[in-house]
Amino acid sequence: MKASSGIEMMVRLERGTREPLRVQLERQLRDGVRSGTLRRGSALPSSRALAGELGIARGVVTEAYAQLAAEGYLVASQGAPTRVGGGSTGADAVPLPAGEPRPPRFDFRPGEPDPALFPRAAWAGAIRQALREAPDARFGYGSPCGVPELRNALATYLGRVRGVVADPETIIVTAGVTQGLTLAGRALIARGVRRLAVEDPGSVFMRGPLAALGLEIVPVPVDDGGLDVEALDAGGAEAVLVTPAHQYPTGVVLAPERRAALRAWGGWVLEDDYDAEFRYDRAPVGALQGLDRERVIYLSSISKTLAPALRMGWLVPPPALAADLRREKHRADRGSALLEQLGLATLLEHGELDRHLRRSRLEYRRRRDTLVAALARHLPHARPHGAAAGLHLLVELPGADEAELLRAAQDAGIGLEGLSQHTIAPGPPAVILGYGCIAEPAIEPGIRRLAELAGA
Ligand SMILES: Cc1ncc(COP(=O)(O)O)c(C=O)c1O
Question: For the domain bounded by 1-96, which CATH number is listed?
Fold first, then answer.
């Protein structure tokens, strides 16, 4: 007798309703992940088996699995069962507070700068100054787009450092790129956009909120030149989310001919410029926005340069969407916190952020060098990518079983991510190693331990 997956107990499909079977299946599986009924890491039945159990066409299950993988609820890898992922796409998937999580012994988790480098004294001084000097009238609702001091300082900073052409009047201060993307997604949906192309691989944390808004996610492959713009053209999307200066997670830079092709493409471009300030041994690459102000929505934040915990970022809209985005920010939260905005404006105006970046760049470069050397020594068959910039490496591990290695790494106290978390179409076995948080002396022993687990 064929073993039953038990999912048919959870899924109740109704025929003859207005909601298509695929949408019903997606919704119920998504709810299952959110509620914990489908446990993280557990294997789902094959699309053929589930289709058989539910008495529906296999294509319906394949499509539902693909959409949920795009949203991060499921993880698909070649030759292995589809598994329940972290469900890391919506606020409702975030676990309840359970005290401060302990960092892993070897902390290669990507995505964060070193909190020990945060310029506390400069920040404290800037916040004290804001409290002392801001008149009472400033403590009411201000502009939803942000205080003029910060928008002016950002326009100057972004022009100087990133080649962004920004009118301070239209800049919107956000709670990070994540909020910026949600605002942009809402504004685009209101303009009739339905299909959003994303880089594959690309950050699941960034496409997740957009998928959750109901946008259909269209994966577009990434190669050594960055996003494949020809494939984008063929995909029929009206907007695309890209990381041109330092593709996440591969680290490639969008090639000049691809930039030109993207301009010619004509859809809306969401430019996630998340870590451009960290560049070690390659020439600076300006933001796309500087070349195309009409179609690019530029997004960035201080999550890599200062700290993600401050939840601060900004968005530079194209003129045609400025009013729409202002409306969305007003609807979302009526504006960002006053004192932090004034504090950041002071840091920018006084050159404190530049000073902080100069110091931290030196430190991260040292860690990067140590990591690259440790990989060459202990994992000589590994293929590291993206070492020239940013705070992480993508490391291909030919022949490795990525899921198995991640499990073993977790047990051994090594924090890292697998590439499969961020892919839609299955990719090669690979891990993403961040060097923002790990202290330099821990890098070599951490990689030695990882190599033992990988059987190298
Ligand atoms: C690709 C990418 N974009 C943006 C961000 C920053 O997001 P936020 O500004 O919301 O913290 C990150 C953080 O890790 C990232 O990996």
Answer: 1.10.10.10
CATH 1.10.10.10 residue ranges of the chain are 1-96
DSSP 286-306: --GGGT-TTTEEEEEESTTTT
Residue nearest to atom 3 of ligand 1 (CA): 274
Identify the three-state secondary structure at position 271: strand
Could you tell me where in the chain the CATH 3.90.1150.10 domains are found?
Answer: 106-113+355-453
Ligand 1: does its nearest atom lie under 6 Å from the Cβ of 111?
yes
CATH 3.40.50.2300 is held by the domain 106-113+355-453: no
CA-based torsion, 288, 291, 295, 299: positive or negative: positive
The CATH class that applies to domain 135-350 reads alpha beta
What is the pTM (predicted TM-score) of this model? 0.80
For a substitution probing ligand 1, which of 227, 274, 299, 433 has the most ligand atoms within 8 Å of its CB?
274
- Among 172, 174, 303, 435, residue to substitute to test ligand 1 (most atoms within 8 Å of Cβ): 303
Instruction: State the DSSP string of 99-114.
Output: SPPPPPSEE--TT---
Mean pLDDT, each 10-residue run in order, the chain (456 residues): 63 86 89 81 87 89 87 81 68 52 89 93 97 96 97 97 95 98 98 98 96 97 97 96 96 95 96 93 88 96 97 98 98 98 98 96 96 97 94 96 96 96 95 95 96 90
